[in-house]
Design brief:
alpha+beta; Leucine-rich Repeat Variant; 3 domains; five-stranded antiparallel sheet; four-stranded antiparallel sheet; 14 helices; elongated; ARM-type_fold; HEAT repeat domain-containing protein; ARM-like
């Protein structure tokens, strides 16, 4: 008996809705727990459905618990009884040794399929099915959508097509092949390479998966160890640090902070203009690994214009390595006029440290 069943809208074969499941049934493959979990999708558009579900499958095959694209309704059947949950609940999933475990939980805020913690203490019920069966049915259904309804002018459909190819190429039938988490980014035809360097459709969930499974840091290490011309490598860093996904920008900056490369310094310093703390702070910290008058001046400039106290605080801390008259003058000013008490106190502390040397 199949443990995963996709049911479709009863419409003409060439109708767009016919390519999207109206219901997905998961029949429990273990002796315990509910008999069946059904997901009813009433409002999902086909392109969005396959985009979200394929990103979730990529996460599962990357050994990351994820949210499954939230349906309109959940139905749990247990010994002839049925419980119904709406969009106030979420569905999280994890994969282990070829098994897919699904659990209904209270609402998970954030991205639709972002990686989440597996939270057994909050689970309503758990259903276990065959991961390979789910993957193959989803991919088969997505291929059908691509063949008959995909719009070549749609960047979302382009992303869906790339995801289909990536998962088909790298997903092992037994679900145990980790190669999907370590795609060779330097291959021009790699889907990951395309996403990082010629992004057709930025997706924060997918970006977060690439951060969590180490793909972005692996690419930064590859660039750092590459002896190509500095300008060429610098352009790669520029692309990553200005990616349309803020998650990719931040992950790149963090990876460079941990794996410093002076060829990235110019583009790290340029991130200050975003004035987004999660991006600016690791970017400045990474650039500060290569002290210079330029870095010092940009730190001072950033403190002067940033609207975020946490950015100004981080920049003040980084001025410790510049015990010169220009730094002392700037710190004396910030210790007096900055409108945040923590920044003023930090400026006073750094000033005292410099003067004591």
């Amino acid at each position: 008996m199949k443990t995963v069943q996709f049911e479709y809208h009863d419409t003409e074969a060439d109708d767009l809705q016919s390519s999207t499941p109206s219901m997905i049934r998961f029949v429990n493959d273990t002796g315990g727990g509910p008999d069946e979990l059904s997901l009813k999708y009433e409002s999902a558009t086909p392109g969005t459905f396959y985009w979200k579900m394929l990103v979730a499958l990529y996460g599962l095959t990357s050994q990351s618990p994820v949210q499954i694209y939230r349906p309109d309704w959940f139905y749990i059947q247990f010994s002839g009884n049925e419980e119904c949950y709406g969009r106030s609940h979420s569905l999280i999933a994890t994969a282990d040794k070829g098994c897919l475990k699904l659990a209904v939980v209270t609402y998970v805020d954030g991205w639709d399929v972002a990686p989440v913690d597996w939270r057994p203490e909050e689970l309503k019920e758990i259903v276990t099915v065959d991961l390979g069966e789910f993957a193959q049915q989803l991919i088969s259904s997505a291929r059908e959508y691509r063949s008959h309804h995909s719009d070549p002018e749609s960047s979302m459909d382009t992303f869906v097509s790339l995801l289909i190819d990536e998962v088909e190429e790298r997903y092992s039938q037994d679900g145990c092949d980790d190669s999907i988490t370590h795609a060779p980014v330097d291959m021009p035809d790699s889907m990951i390479h395309t996403y990082l360097y010629d992004c057709p459709y930025p997706d924060e969930s997918f970006s977060y998966l690439l951060q969590c499974n180490g793909t972005i840091e692996a690419e930064v290490k590859r660039l750092r160890d590459n002896e190509l011309d500095a300008d060429e490598i610098g352009m790669r860093y520029q692309t990553l640090l200005s990616h349309e996904s803020e998650t990719v920008q931040r992950a790149t900056a963090v990876a460079l902070r941990n794996n410093p490369d002076e060829r990235a310094k110019e583009w790290l310093l340029a991130r200050r203009w975003t004035d987004i703390p999660a991006i600016v702070i690791p970017s400045l910290e990474a650039a500060a690994e290569f002290p210079s008058d330029e870095v010092r001046d940009i730190l001072v400039e950033t403190i002067s214009f940033s609207s975020h106290p946490e950015i100004r605080h981080a920049a003040v801390e980084l001025l410790k390595q510049y015990p010169d008259d220009e730094t002392i003058s700037a710190l004396e000013k910030f210790a007096e006029v900055d409108d945040d008490e923590t920044v003023r106190e930090t400026a006073q502390s750094v000033l005292a440290t410099i003067k004591s040397k």
